[in-house]
Amino acid sequence: MADLKIIGARKSFGAVDVLHGIDLDVKDGEFVVFVGPSGCGKSTLLRVIAGLEPVSAGEIEIDGVRVTDRPASERGLAMVFQSYALYPHMSVRENMGFALENMGLPKAEITSRVDRAAAMLRLTDYLDRKPKALSGGQRQRVAIGRSIVRDPKIFLFDEPLSNLDAELRVATRKELAALHAEIGGTMIYVTHDQVEAMTLADRIVVLRAGRIEQVGTPLDLYNRPANVFVAGFIGSPQ
Ligand code: ADP
Ligand code: MG
């Protein structure tokens, strides 16, 4: 688990400014949700935090350590995307343990980490199956399991449920909430789904066109939206 500090983060692609100076503190163990319309920079902000894109200006700190120039592999983060690319020829156990093998962990340690994550995600009975013999929700849980076994300091989720149908979204969302309650990790979660944001978040960050419009608890934003945009996005009556 870890704190995350974003200080004046800017990102441009060529002449296009996508992030206009983002300041944000995320506390250890917090579940923070980024919301905002398509194209407002949610994924870019996540990729900048992850180290998959360099910032154009500003700083990123994890646990008080400047990681701005460090590659993704040295930031202790795990990222779960909406398109969960599992290896089709590998079993669930192999998919979940693959990264740990690459890290050179002993076999017994890999087995115990995978078993623990599988139990949390209700995948114990599916460990010997191939991805094609799983439902969409189970596949997404394997993708989440792959990140859990690495014991990351911070989890980053980019619209992880958006490929699932409505019923599965609700079920998987509840699992994510339970998971957070159980492992207590610092989680940053991108969605454009207001219900997901309101039910999962300790705090919501509302983004518009590369700027933060407001940061607050779901109740704060609902009861005291800073402006009409936030009110409209959160679904508040104001
Ligand atoms: P969101 O995730 O909120 O939908 P993105 O972060 O994906 O938004 O994109 C924000 C803006 O940045 C969009 O206008 C998008 O076209 C642009 N953008 C994102 N990635 C790149 C890139 N690699 N090169 C050029 N423009 C990009
Ligand atoms: Mg996106």
UniProtKB/TrEMBL annotation:
<feature type="domain" description="ABC transporter">
    <location>
        <begin position="4"/>
        <end position="234"/>
    </location>
</feature>
<keyword id="KW-0547">Nucleotide-binding</keyword>
<dbReference type="GO" id="GO:0005524">
    <property type="term" value="F:ATP binding"/>
</dbReference>
<keyword id="KW-0472">Membrane</keyword>
<dbReference type="GO" id="GO:0015423">
    <property type="term" value="F:ABC-type maltose transporter activity"/>
</dbReference>
<dbReference type="GO" id="GO:0055052">
    <property type="term" value="C:ATP-binding cassette (ABC) transporter complex, substrate-binding subunit-containing"/>
</dbReference>
<keyword id="KW-1003">Cell membrane</keyword>
<comment type="similarity">
    <text>Belongs to the ABC transporter superfamily.</text>
</comment>
<keyword id="KW-0997">Cell inner membrane</keyword>
<keyword id="KW-0067">ATP-binding</keyword>
<dbReference type="GO" id="GO:0016887">
    <property type="term" value="F:ATP hydrolysis activity"/>
</dbReference>
<keyword id="KW-0762">Sugar transport</keyword>
<protein>
    <submittedName>
        <fullName>ABC-type sugar transport system ATPase subunit</fullName>
    </submittedName>
</protein>
<dbReference type="GO" id="GO:1990060">
    <property type="term" value="C:maltose transport complex"/>
</dbReference>
<keyword id="KW-0813">Transport</keyword>
